[in-house]
Write a structure and sequence with these properties.
Strand order of the largest sheet of chain B: 1-2
Protein name (chain B): Cobalt transport protein CbiM
Number of strands of chain B: 2
InterPro entries (chain B): CbiM/NikMN
Structural class of chain B: mainly alpha
CATH architecture of chain B: Orthogonal Bundle
Membrane topology (chain B): Multi-pass membrane protein
Largest sheet of chain A: none
Number of strands of chain A: 0
Number of domains of chain B: 1
Subcellular location (chain B): Cell membrane
Structural class of chain A: mainly alpha
Oligomer: heterodimer
Strand content of chain B: under 5%
CATH class of chain B: Mainly Alpha
Transmembrane segments (chain B): 12-31, 43-61, 73-98, 104-124, 136-156, 176-196
Number of helices of chain A: 4
Chain lengths: 100, 219
C-alpha cells in the first residue's frame, strides 16, 4: 500500500492524531501551570529518592533543543507520532506470520 | 508512571528486563502462529501512533498534579492482548529512546507496567465484562489496567534501595493516586471504544473473534 492510499483510507484516524499533536502544546502549558507532578514523583519525594539520568534522549522531554517550547512540543509530537507509526508498521509486518 | 534512571536497584531492573523479554517473546510467537490479516497492519500502526499522541496530552488536575492517558486498554481492546502488547512496547520504547521519558535501565520495568500488566489485565477484564455491557467493560478495563500497572511500578521502586525498600509506602501511594487518576483513563477508554464500536466495529479484536467463531446472538 502506498502512502497516499494509506492516508486516504485512514484519514479519520490520521486527522484525530494530528489534532492531538496540534493541541498538545496547550496541554503542556496547562500542566506546567499547575505544576506537573506524577504520583511516582510524590512517592520519590516522600522517600528522598533521586533520579540519576544517564541518557536524555534525542528530543529531551518532548522538546527540540533551541526551539521555543510550544513549537518544540509540537515538533516533538509530530516526530514521535510518525516514528511510532513507522516502527509499529514495520514490526507488525515483520512478525505477522502467515495470513489468515 | 515512567520510572527514570537511578530509581531501581540493578537486580530489580534486570529481573524486569528478563520477565518482559519472556512475555514479549511469547507475544511474538503467538502472533506469528495465529497470523495477522493484512488489513490489520495499518490499524496496528495507527493505534500505536494515536496512543503516542494521546500520551502527549497532560491533563492538569487542580491541586498540583497532572496525569496523562496511557492507553494499554485501548491497545488491548482494538488489537488484542498480543499485538496490543507489541504496540505499547513500541510506544514506551520510543518514549525512552527518543524523548528520554523513562530511564534506559528502567525500560524493562516500565514496559512490564504499561505494555504487559496494563494490556493483559485490561484485555481479560474487557473480555469478561463485555458480554454484559461494552461501555462498563471498557471503563473498568482502562481503570483497573492502569491502576495495577501503577502498583507494579510501586512494587519495583519499593523493592529498591533508593526508595528505602519502603514497599508498604510506595504501593499505596501509586495504587491510591493512580486508582483515582485511573478514572480519567477509564472514561477516555470508553469514549474511544464506544466511538469505534459504533462506527468501525469490524476493527475491534474481540468482536472480530466473536464473528470468526460465528458465536452469534451478540448485540
Amino acid at each position: 500500500m502506498n502512502f497516499k492510499d494509506f492516508i486516504k483510507e485512514h484519514k479519520k484516524a490520521v486527522l484525530v492524531i494530528l489534532v492531538a499533536i496540534i493541541v498538545s502544546p496547550l496541554f503542556a502549558l496547562a500542566a506546567d501551570a499547575v505544576g506537573y507532578s506524577e504520583p511516582l514523583e510524590k512517592s520519590a519525594d516522600h522517600l528522598g529518592a533521586e533520579e540519576s539520568p544517564i541518557y536524555g534522549g534525542i528530543l529531551p522531554d518532548y522538546s527540540v533543543p533551541g526551539v521555543d517550547s510550544p513549537i518544540g512540543t509540537f515538533i516533538a509530537g509530530l516526530v514521535g507520532s510518525i516514528v511510532t507509526l513507522i516502527i509499529m508498521l514495520g514490526v507488525t509486518m515483520a512478525i505477522k506470520g502467515r495470513n489468515n | 508512571m515512567h520510572i527514570p534512571d537511578g530509581f531501581l536497584d540493578m537486580n530489580i531492573a534486570v529481573l524486569y528486563y528478563l520477565l518482559t523479554a519472556i512475555v514479549v517473546g511469547i507475544c511474538i510467537y503467538k502472533i506469528k502462529k495465529d497470523g495477522i490479516d493484512e488489513k490489520r497492519v495499518p490499524i496496528a500502526g495507527l493505534v500505536a501512533a494515536g496512543i503516542f499522541a494521546a500520551q502527549m496530552l497532560n491533563w492538569p488536575i487542580p491541586g498540583g498534579t497532572s496525569a496523562h492517558f496511557v492507553g494499554g486498554a485501548v491497545a488491548a481492546i482494538i488489537l488484542g492482548p498480543f499485538l496490543g502488547c507489541i504496540a505499547m512496547v513500541s510506544v514506551v520504547s520510543i518514549q525512552a529512546l527518543v524523548f528520554g521519558d523513562g530511564g534506559i535501565t528502567a525500560l524493562g520495568t516500565n514496559l512490564f507496567s504499561m505494555a504487559i500488566v496494563g494490556v493483559f489485565v485490561a484485555y481479560y477484564i474487557y473480555k469478561a465484562l463485555n458480554k454484559y455491557n461494552t461501555k462498563i467493560a471498557a471503563f473498568v478495563a482502562g481503570w483497573i489496567g492502569i491502576t495495577l500497572g501503577a502498583i507494579n511500578t510501586g512494587i519495583a521502586t519499593g523493592l529498591s534501595s533508593t526508595f528505602q525498600y519502603a514497599i508498604t509506602t510506595t504501593v499505596p501511594i501509586m495504587g491510591i493516586w493512580h486508582g483515582i487518576l485511573g478514572i480519567i483513563e477509564g472514561l477516555i477508554t470508553v469514549a474511544i471504544i464506544a466511538y469505534i464500536e459504533k462506527n468501525r466495529e469490524d476493527i475491534l479484536y474481540i468482536s472480530n473473534k466473536t464473528k470468526n467463531k460465528s458465536r452469534s446472538g451478540k448485540k
